[in-house]
Amino acid sequence: MKPKITDLENLALGAGKILKEGYGGKIQIDMKGKIDLVTEFDRRTEDYLVGAIRSQFPGHKVITEERGVIQGENSRVWYIDPLDGTVNYAHGVPIFSVSIAYMENDQVVMGAIYDPMQAELYVAERGQGARLNGRPVRVSQASALDQSLLVTGFPYDMHTNPVNNLDHYANFAVRSRGVRGLGSAAIDLAYVAAGRFDGFWEIRIHNWDIAAGSLLVEEAGGKVTDVRGGPDFISDEPSILATNGRIHSQMLAVLQG
Ligand code: IPD
Ligand code: CA
Ligand code: CA
After folding, report:
1. pTM over 0.90
2. For the segment 195-219, what is each residue's pLDDT rounded down to a tens digit?
3. Which residue, judged by its Cα, is nearest atom 2 of ligand 1?
4. What residue segments make up the domains of the chain, in order of their start?
5. If you average pLDDT over residues 181-189, what whole number do you get?
6. Which CATH number fits domain 145-256: 3.40.630.40, 3.40.190.80, 3.40.190.10, 3.30.830.10?
7. Considering the chain, what is the average pLDDT of its residues?
8. Residues with beta carbon inside 6 Å of ligand 1?
9. 229 Cβ neighbours under 8 A, 6+ residues apart
10. Which of 127, 135, 112, 126 is nearest to 195 (CA)?
C-alpha cells in the first residue's frame, strides 16, 4: 500500500511531539564516537516511527539511523532520521528536526521535515510542489555567489579524517555572503527550499539526512546533485549540493577547484 502525504505529516508531527517533550530535560546521552552522540530521544522517536510505519505499511523496507536496515520490499523504502541535530538537542540548542522520506523504485516520492521548536512542517510530494505549514515555498532568486548565504556541516570524524570539508568551507567563506552551520542537515535543506539559504553542500553525509530535504529543494524549484555534479546524491557514498539552481554551477566550480 502506498502512503499518503498526510501519513508522513502525521508521523513527523508525532515524532516532533516526542522530541519537544524531551527537550531541555535531563536526558540520557551515550557516545557513538568522539563527538557523535545518541540520546534516549533519538531512540524513543525512532521506536515510535518504526512502530507506526511497520504497522501501517507492513511490507515496506525501513532504513533508520540508529537501527539500520529493517528488511522489506526493495521498491518501497523509508529513510528515517528520528532526530537530526542530536548534538544541538543534547546541548539545549533549539535547532533540530525529524526527517522522513518515502522512496519508490530508488526515487524519493514524498518527504516531510518537522522542526518542533519553530512549529514548521515542510512537506513535498513529487510533482506537487513543496509546502511549509500548508503554504507553497520557492527557492531564492540570488544569482551570484558573492550575494549568496550558504550553509554546510561537517562529518563526525573530522578530527582524524583529512577529508573533512574544512577546505571547501574556507573557499566558500571568502566567496559568499557567509557560511552558516546550523547542525541539522534536514533543516539546512528545508531552508534552501524556503529561500532562506541559497545553497547547501555537505560531503560524507548519510541518506537519511538528505532524502526528504532533497525532494523539498527540487519541488521548490531548486537543483540537487552530488558534489561532483552527478545525479546519485542518494547512494552508498552520499554527498550533496542543493541550491536555488542559479548558483549551482558557481558552487560546483568552487567544490572542484
Ligand atoms: C548530523 C547533522 C549535521 C550534519 C551531520 C549529520 P545527526 O546529523 O545533520 O548537521 O553536519 O553530517 O550527521 O547526527 O544530528 O542526526
Ligand atoms: Ca542526521
Ligand atoms: Ca540523527
Report:
1. yes
2. 999 999 999 999 999 999 999 999 9
3. 184
4. 5-136, 145-256
5. 98
6. 3.40.190.80
7. 96
8. 65, 81, 84-86, 153-155, 183-185, 202, 205, 209
9. 241, 252
10. 135
